Amino acid sequence: MQPRSTAAYAVFFSILTIGAYLAAGTQYAAANNARASLWGIVILAGLSAASLVGMAYLPVRG
């Protein structure tokens, strides 16, 4: 190979590698955001259920 073609190949390979790294990073970030959102929903649902059960056993006036 000639030096120019080797340099062009190295630049092309670097661009592809960086692009793949960034794409994988955004996929991991999206998965982590979805997981965090799911845990938030689970926690809020648990707190709501606990408060509803607790209010069901409050004394009745009258």
Short description:
The protein is built from 1 helix and no strands. It is mostly helical.
Secondary structure layout:
Elements: H1 3-56
Would you kindly provide a written description of the structure presented here, covering whatever features stand out?
The chain has 62 residues and is mainly α. Helices cover 87% and strands 0% of the residues. The protein is built from 1 helix and no strands. It has one helix spanning 3-56. The longest helix has 54 residues, at 3-56. It is rod-shaped, with a radius of gyration of 27 Å. The chain starts with a helix and ends in a 6-residue tail after the last helix.
Determine the mean pLDDT.
83
SSE ordering: H
Uncertain stretches: none
Structural class: mainly alpha
Largest sheet: none
Strand content: under 5%
Helix content: over 70%
Tell me, briefly, the overall form. Answer: rod-shaped
- Rg: 27 Å
Count, helices: 1
Distance between the termini: 94 Å
Number of strands: 0
